[in-house]
Amino acid sequence: MTPINDRIRPAGFHVELIPPKQDSQKLEDDLGLFASKFERVMESGFTASITDNAMGLLAFQGHECIEELGLRARPDQVLIHLNTFHTKEDLDGILSACEKLGIRSILAISGDGSPRLPKLRPSDVEAKDTASVTSVELTRYIRQHYPAFTVGVAFNPYEPEAHEFEKLKRKLDAGASFVITQPIIDRNAVTDRLLSEYPGLPVFIEAWMSKKLFLLSDVVGYPIPEDAAFDPVATLGQLREYYPSCGMYLSLLGFKTQYTVIEEMAAGAARRAT
Amino acid sequence: MKIIDEFDRRSYRNVWTVSECAGGDIHPVSYELLGKARELAAAGGCEVWTVVLGSGFSEHPDALYAYGADVIVAVDDARMRAFNDELECHVLERLVEKYRPEIVLCAATSRGRALIPRLASRIHTGLTADCTGLAIDPDSGNLLQTRPAFGGNIMATIKCTDHRPQMATVRPKVMPMPSPEPGRTGRLIRESILASDTLNIKEILRSVGRQESTVNLSDARIIVAGGRAMKGPDGFRLLEAFAKQLGGAVGASRAAVDNGWIAYPHQIGQTGATVQADVYIACGISGQIQHLVGMQSCKTIVAIDIDDTTPMMKLADISVKGDLFELIPEIMKEIKKGAAL
Amino acid sequence: MRIVVCVKQVPATTDAKIDPETKRIVREGTKAVLNPFDLYAVEEALRIRERCGGEVVALSMGPENAKNVLVEALSMGADRAVLLSGRGFAGSDTWATSYALAKAIERLGGADLIICGKQAVDGDTAQVGPGIAAKLDIMQAANVSSVDDICPDSITVSRMNETGYDVLKLRFPALITVLKDINVPRIPTLRNARKARAAEIAIWSPEDIGAEPDKIGLNASPTRVVKTEPPAVRAGASVRICAAPSEAAKALTEELFRRGLIRADVREESV
């Protein structure tokens, strides 16, 4: 595999980590678990990709967990998600804190709302001619005011194709420099088109590491047929073969059951590369 | 006030309403209350009294008689031009102690919902908020007060057996507007503010009317409301055009507001506005109970959605299955065509 | 300056269960959350403290596990929390609840300002705020949309009504109930959330607040729920339209005109 970007580590995986929830009844335990997962990802040389109130469920911020737990964030191995459901003050607070921690990558997404989460207003990110802040305006704001960050954006191959490509163009024009797809479980024509239209663009394929495909339907907003024989690890292997130039982003990875297998997979790839 | 014995219980008589008056005008909900009070008074064989606290109204109280009041208790004083909780509560407390009504009904307006709980707390009696049904129990003679509880999931019937007066608030437009009886008259009792009423009351620095009519969902005849399936602010721009064509207002589910597609004043449901429009057109709103409680008393409900299994599609009077973004422009074309006929 | 903010634990709505005997909501075993409107009350209390100094005390009444909503208030930044809990309080309606909270505030040594949410989403009565003000015989303003000024002895607020707003000056001690428009509640930081979970929450019984036994709980509550039933269900779709967009649009429009729901004058406006 050839390095796709000096800031983005293809030799290995992006592993999605979800910080403890705000309403946790056993916060200290949850924090302990988060810390051990985070450290394991660091040791493996993978990238910890930390979500921002995923699905609109209130959770603590990735940077807070790193600071508060005294975790060692290796600068190139952390990707912080940032959505549009913040106050301006919080947005700038998160970005400044990440900068101080040496984190270099941000994934800018529109995200999911909840009654508890304030939505950024266009004026908060100096956006004009729009009624609502999306990842486009967020990306532009981050690139302008925090140029040290590499900003990634999401790509949803399940949405109507023309619309999604048009949106991607606006995201890239706003300064995004890498892309993470929504989870796919097979070779995907829209993703193929993405790679052929943007040959130089670093793309990460999200692989669904849970056996529960119905959850995936909820995430992408389109029904994915249930398949009792779905094997996440085998599917990941196939996706790596189909898309050798792409990084792999693992969501819902089972640390107990899958992590060692994943590490071996990465080590094998590294051996083959040398 | 806690009832001591049967003699004490019988000392409370008549059905009272607290009329609402702003800038000298009687709020229409006051007449709705009188209609209900007449019904209750007929069942209990007693009179209907209404209390009006305000400024500059008492020249023309005839409408209150026409709508059912036998007696008007009027306190007309410039100090009550704007609503002062403490002052009005003191006055009402005195009047209730003096005249001992058996039942007190009040509008569940912003004023009523602040004033009446304070009064109930002061005189130690029960209060049921936002009643949708009021009737006299034929066996005990007590007031049966029915209200939606728990976000409309249940209807609870509540009694207040050992305290008097029995007090309830009713939201505007929940009770039907009675037909007035022109020429009907009654007695007028004038009361005034006492020095003791004015102790420890707040200062009202100024009252400001709303500059422009922003979102007025409660008075809208037609409401076009959108939910999650409108997908974004562009979807709501489409609904705005649709609502404008119909001369209606735009509403929204919480999901749409939470996603920032439209501002909070448009939200309908448990944590937003309650509406009673003639026509409610729900576009891509699945119909969670929290939303339904805010709109289910609209007269005709139209639902448009691609998914016809949602609660909203099932309860609607007219349901249209299809893609909103295709259907709405087509509907707008058809309405325009109809207008050209 | 002492600010008391009254918060309530409410069941997450969709899990509603009613006890057939007491006709009251069963709180055991259902997911419980902080009443959403109370977040704005907590936030406003914190903002006032940040401007004027003093302390914010979060106060609640409920079963032991209502501690969780106090933890949330502490996580946001309240200085301390008190829960009224005990058998004697069980079955309280809004009258008895107002009495107990007012007694607790007296026991705290009083408050300059008491802040409540607009209403609780389970009962929707909006009665407890004014009820407390009545018991303490202090000034009140419900539906406050902004705090405009604070002096050592008074607060100036804007109170929304149906046609506009009033600007009111209340002398301390005073009570306000706040609307959603008033602020954007902060999200607790991890540091505060950890501190809050370790904090001691005082639990006060009826005796602790010197409550008269005949003024708390079910026996002091003037109202009784005598019956609960499911709400009347609407008849449902009498007309179902499922066709190609242009056909469906035509069918709907015809139906609306036929029923007189779209009037000629509206049609004219639309031309």
Task: Describe this structure as you would to a colleague.
Chain A has 274 residues and is α/β, with parallel strands linked by helices. An eight-stranded parallel barrel of chain A has the order 1-2-3-4-5-6-7-8, surrounded by four helices. Chain A is 38% helix and 14% strand. Chain A is globular, with a radius of gyration of 18 Å. The termini of chain A are close together. In chain B, strand 9 (143-149) and strand 10 (154-159) form a beta hairpin. In chain B, the strands form four sheets. In chain B, strands 7-11-6-1-4-5-12 form a seven-stranded parallel sheet, sandwiched between helices. In chain B, strands 15-14-16-17-18 form a five-stranded parallel sheet. In chain B, strands 8-9-10 form a three-stranded antiparallel sheet. Chain B has 341 residues and is an alpha/beta fold. With 271 residues, chain C is α/β, with parallel strands linked by helices. In chain C, helix 3 packs across helix 4. Chain C starts with a strand and ends with a helix. Strand 18 (318-321) of chain B pairs parallel with strand 13 (239-242) of chain C, so a sheet runs across the interface.
Keywords:
heterotrimer; A: 274 residues; alpha/beta; TIM Barrel; eight-stranded parallel β-barrel; 38% helix; globular; C: 271 residues; Rossmann fold; 2 domains; nine-stranded mixed β-sheet; two-stranded antiparallel ribbon; 7 helices; disordered C terminus
